[in-house]
Amino acid sequence: MEDLLELDDQLTPEHRMIRDTVRRFVSERVLPHVGEWFERGVFPGRELAPELGSLGLLGMHLEGYGCAGLDAISYGVACRELEAGDSGLRSFVSVQGSLAMFPIWKYGSEEQKQEWLPRLASGEAIGCFGLTEPDHGSDPGSMRTYAKQDPSGDWILNGSKMWITNGSIADVAVVWAQTDSGIRGFIVPASTPGFSAQEIHRKLSLRASVTSSLHFDDVRLPASAVLPGVTGLKGPLSCLTEARYGILWGVVGAARACLEAAVDYARTRIQFGKPIGAFQLTQRKLAWMAVALGQAGLTALHLGRLKEAGRLKPRQVSFGKLANVRAALDIAREARSILGANGITLEYPVIRHMTNLESVLTYEGTEEVHTLVLGEALTGVAAYR
């Protein structure tokens, strides 16, 4: 399909190499199977993690400790190509790199970094990020999970987390909890007594992804389990900013896959003696889908350049997440209408992307929360409460 704005011409040769490498991996290892994974509600994370690690995709935007140390646009392009396969695949890589590895890399001790980052980068170990709770999603500052230090210096962790990607296959969880001195991050190995994880089933979105609940029942952790470099909501929110950056690129890939499917179908589906792509109403749909895709791609590229320059602000990431996910979801829905009844089958990628994007619209900041972030930026007035 033609890139109407020729956006990939703006990429460096290294970015294009990453694009082609990830696209080939997705084409060979994911697309032949992802429809079946989605239908069965499974994701072979243990099998894919070492392969993703060998490609340098886990924590690829981090420096040292076995990480690739690539730039922001490289990370974005990789997320775009991964999500062109499936949002669950990009979520796996995003959670591993931006939500499990990034807080250890940014706020961890040298011992914590040496212990976990090389294993997570290679895919030998899988990580998850415990912030959202059953009763506290958009308001993480009200979390109930609590850690208290006893006279021995150990921490005792109690509480639960919900909607945790990778949770029940993770070797380690980065868990955020209230303490007497504010919210702190804790590195919790999955083998720690009192820690348990259950996979959430009966999902109709992100089915090719492991989603779990985490439970902590008097989990005893040494003092060395605390991330020493941050206290307060700044810690988890900075991690979410990293992950949301990957999302605003990733959904461009999902949208592109839907538009490509719609264009191919419109060229070959014959009705009233000619392809449906020859009808004006269909061409109008395709044209506006292409416009929305181009605008989302421009937004991602611009924010990537700001990030590389060290100028990217959280509210700009909110802008990208809000605009690009909504655009991708609109494109997926329009593509579904072009495919008609065939659009609801897993013979085509559209319904899978469409239902996945319903979750992407919500996770890591709902559409409503990002709207309020922009409202506050424009008016100077916070309207969250």
From TrEMBL:
**Boundaries of every Acyl-CoA oxidase/dehydrogenase middle domain copy:** 128-219
| Listed GO MF terms | fatty-acyl-CoA binding; flavin adenine dinucleotide binding; glutaryl-CoA dehydrogenase activity
Q: Keywords of this protein's UniProt record, alphabetized?
A: FAD, Flavoprotein, Oxidoreductase, Transit peptide
The answer, when asked if DNA repair is one of the entry's keywords, is no
Domain Acyl-CoA dehydrogenase/oxidase N-terminal: residue ranges: 12-124
Origin: domain of life: Bacteria
Q: Name one GO biological process term.
A: fatty acid beta-oxidation using acyl-CoA dehydrogenase
Which cofactors does this gene product need?
FAD
Q: Which InterPro entries match?
A: Acyl-CoA_Oxase/DH_mid-dom, Acyl-CoA_Oxase/DH_mid-dom_sf, AcylCo_DH-like_C, AcylCo_DH/oxidase_C, AcylCoA_DH/ox_N, AcylCoA_DH/ox_N_sf, AcylCoA_DH/oxidase_NM_dom_sf, Glutaryl-CoA_DH_mitochondrial
The Acyl-CoA dehydrogenase/oxidase C-terminal domain covers which part of the protein? Answer: 232-378
Q: Which family does it belong to?
A: Belongs to the acyl-CoA dehydrogenase family.
Q: Which PANTHER family match?
A: GLUTARYL-COA DEHYDROGENASE, MITOCHONDRIAL
The entry's protein name is: Acyl-CoA dehydrogenase domain protein
- Which organism is this entry from? Thermobispora bispora (strain ATCC 19993 / DSM 43833 / CBS 139.67 / JCM 10125 / KCTC 9307 / NBRC 14880 / R51)
